[in-house]
Amino acid sequence: MPLTGSDELPDRSDVELRIPAQGVYVSVLRTTTAGLAARLDFTLDDIEDLRMAVGEAAAIVLESAADDADLRARFWLGDRTMTVTVDADTDGTVMVDEDSFAWQVLTTLATSAEFSTTDERLAITLVMQATPLEAAL
Amino acid sequence: MTDEPTRDELVTPSRSPAVEETRRRSAALFAVLGASDATMAERGDAREQLVHLHLPLVEHCARRFRNRGEPLEDLVQVGTIGLLKAVDRFDTGRGVEFSTYATPTIIGEIKRHFRDKGWAIRVPRRLQELRMQIGSVSATLTQTLGRSPTPRELAEEIGCTVEEIVEGLDSGNAYSTLSLDAGEESEDGPGSMLDAIGVDDDSLEHVEIRESIKPLLDALGDREKKILMLRFFRNMTQSQIAAEVGISQMHVSRLLSRTLDHLRTALETD
Fold first, then answer.
1. By the CB < 8 Å criterion, does B26 face chain A?
2. Are residues B169 and A34, on separate chains, in Cβ contact within 8 Å?
């Protein structure tokens, strides 16, 4: 669902990464994400899920990114939780197809996922909560 | 060596002087290697020279596997191991050229390298080993914890840093099997995954036929239905059916074939 209202996220993210809006750089984003998640004590499964979800988010944003745009990823690191926003400038207003495969994958993998479209910018925000460490019953 | 022509010569009678020279030196060196009165030093020297002499053969073999994601130097290196094995195992009494004997050994060694190290990107051995350790330890931890472990837990278990685990995880993404159809290795050579994949059960088709034939059977007359039942479900012979229904065997035969024909046509036009 589209992002509504303002979140409690502080303006300043903990980590910010800017890469050219090209597919080849997405792996850098995925690796960075995994590295950060590992330091937040995410489980391996969580890390793989998050890595994949961020990859999908980047793929969706890239599809609509303007030719000379940069892809920006911002990370808010919490207590075994991570919020990632991936955004880029777009040509005109774009919509995210919520029935698309990529969006389905993303929403399945992440704890929650939202997108926001302003006139010239598409942003996808996803939250990933780490699996509780207590042994599953 | 005897003066008998070797198998090689029979196949390819003409040889360049260079090949001839290599052959001659090779034979001489193997003679030293096999001589009972040769000293350890002499043998070692001969072995060394033999390896050097045939390095071009290794390079030739390695070049056949270029552009498969492994550096040529690595392929030459593993190919050389094959060459060493070939030198040690070669029996001059067999009457074959050393190159004929060595080539499959060298290629086999290179192929094994690809099988064992099916890494799409060259990853340092340390990371490969770590990756394998992560794999086995996380399997164990997943069992005991009831969930997948965190890098911190893995690091504690393995005795390395979280950074190294993250590094190992990343390198894991560089690993890919050569092909989905590249199978498990076994004594009889690799079995293909396709061999392990099931095929459609033949009975499935029967289910379909049975389902579509149901309404057709219902539409049959009572006598035809009874004859079909007796023939195919009770396995009675036409004569037995004839006695049961009270008509001649000829009549049963005609009725059966007519009914079956009718069913077949109805199924096909369905």
1. no
2. yes
Spacing of C-alpha A104 from chain mean position: 14
* B3 or A110, higher pLDDT: A110
Give the mean model confidence (pLDDT) for residues A53-69: 90
CB contact under 8 A, B150 and A39: no
- A94 touches A117 (CB < 8 A): yes
Q: pTM value?
A: 0.47
Task: Report all structural domains of chain A as residue ranges with CATH numbers, in order of start.
Answer: 13-136 (3.30.565.10)
**pLDDT confidence of residue B199:** 65
The pair of three-digit structure tokens given for residue A120, joined into one six-digit string: 């010239």
| CA pseudo-torsion sign B62, B64, B65, B70 | positive
Among A125, A121, A126, A123, CA closest to A49: A126
User: What is the structure's pLDDT at A137?
Assistant: 45
Q: Which two tokens stand for residue B147?
A: 């969930």
Chain A residues with beta carbon closer than 8 angstroms to that of B162 = 38-39
- Counting as low any pLDDT under 50, the low residues of chain B are 1-13, 174-191
In angstroms, the CA B199 to CA B202 distance is 9
Query: Which of A26, A30, A31, A43 to substitute to test the interface with B, most B CBs within 10 Å?
Result: A43
